[in-house]
Fold this sequence. Notes:
Elements: E1 7-11, H1 18-31, E2 35-39, H2 43-49, E3 56-61, H3 70-83, E4 87-91, H4 94-98, H5 102-116, E5 120-124, H6 132-144, E6 149-151, H7 163-173, E7 178-182, H8 188-197, E8 201-204, H9 207-211
Helix pairs in contact: 3-5, 5-6, 6-7
Amino acid sequence: MDVNALIDHTLLRPDAAREEIERLCDEAVAHGFASVCVNTCWVPLCAERLAESPVAVCCVVGFPLGAMATEPKAAETAWAVAAGADEVDMVLNGGWLKSGMDDAVRADIAAVVDAANGRIVKVILETGLLTDEQIVQACELAVEAGAAFVKTSTGFGHGGATVHDVALMAKAVAGRAQVKASGGIHTAQEAESLVAAGASRLGTSSGVAIAEGRTVEGGY
């Protein structure tokens, strides 16, 4: 299994420095990762540095809470795409989901999909805050809104990817979208178990360690 090709090489710390982002890009090229995943302020730098490579530029939107209003979330997406983003990982509005505001959740995702103008959109559910029933409902709304992926977690404080959640999400989308596992993936064994459960993309800050067969503690 070529796990490297499934990895979104991630650096989302608020204090990440320019040299770290540049190193992230160079590591992604060296190891054949699918993308780098960064905050939107770094999209122009990554787009320039990766212009001659097959590595995609992925960014997060409405991150990490997802609780911003729809218009600014869509505006951040449009800005990122104009700046060179190939993929957008948006955070679902969990409060709206738990309130039964399905139309608002669907419209929120659809607005980002529209602003992404054909780019891949992944919807972060933050599964650690949801019941199984809410995870299934969120997956359905994401599919209805046109998202290409559903994603487990932000990796910022509410648990990470589990085999149970990935399998549940894969069953819920039933081939209509793909599943990205993210949060707490530190070893090749963990990565492979999540792929076996149904993930076709992996978000991790431990990509280099995974590629080199090492184990690291902590990180996204």
